[in-house]
Amino acid sequence: MTAEPMNHVPLSLSDDVVEPLYARDPNTGARLHDDDLDALADALRQARGQAEQVLALSNALKADPTKSPGAVALTLREKGLKAGERAAHTLDQARNRLAATVARLSAETAAPLPARDAGAMMLEGEIRAALARMTARDRSAAISQAFEDGEDAVIGAMLRGPALLSGLGTDQQRMLQDRYRNERHPREADRIARLTKALEGLERGAVSLVGFTDAITTTPQAIRAEEAAERTERALASFK
Fold first, then answer.
1. DSSP E strand stretches across 63-159
2. Residue pair 13/47 in contact by the 8 Å Cβ criterion
3. Please, is 168 exposed, middle or buried when counting C-beta atoms within 10 Å of its C-beta (0-12, 13-18, 19+)?
4. Which ranges of the chain have pLDDT less than 70?
5. Residues in CB range of 172: below 8 A, 6 or more apart
6. What is the number of other CB atoms lying within 10 angstroms of the CB of residue 31?
7. What is the pTM of this model?
């Protein structure tokens, strides 16, 4: 099955999708600098540039009366695949950068700073054990009280380490980490949310890029032209 012919560059391959994701100055509304979003915008511009070059080449080749349909299809397949690989690599680098920042910020803001002395570490273990022994109702009440009172020793004990040690489920612990992050680190929580949306937008752009590349390079004519060229090369090689 082949893709439908493509005569335009996908809108998702545009740095315009990044603009709404920047934080804004609360007083002036001015866009605040963000290296990760800048890198994403640049990656999208580069990927779009690659796609636009392929589309321009397609239009030029098809308008050239000296080029046979087979030659046009084969050239577009060769150039399109190379351009698609370059664009995909650029988007992959931006994706890795965004994902690394989200992971770092999430880890840094998931719980209070860890205990540094032996006594505090021992207390954390005792708190986890006490929470694990409680009924679900009592544990929920204790957790709510710890958040209300700002008891970092209790909060840290249950948000660090395996959830099971505190009698929590993994999803429950993750929800509590989100609560802690939103309450104690609202700016970081907001940035994580914006960068996560940026990752989702990047994925849409990557999918569009694959579709665009396929539409250019996997036409029946392109496949037949490539197969014919390979047969010719093998035939010529037999004369060596």
1. none
2. yes
3. buried
4. 1-6, 240
5. 163
6. 14
7. 0.84
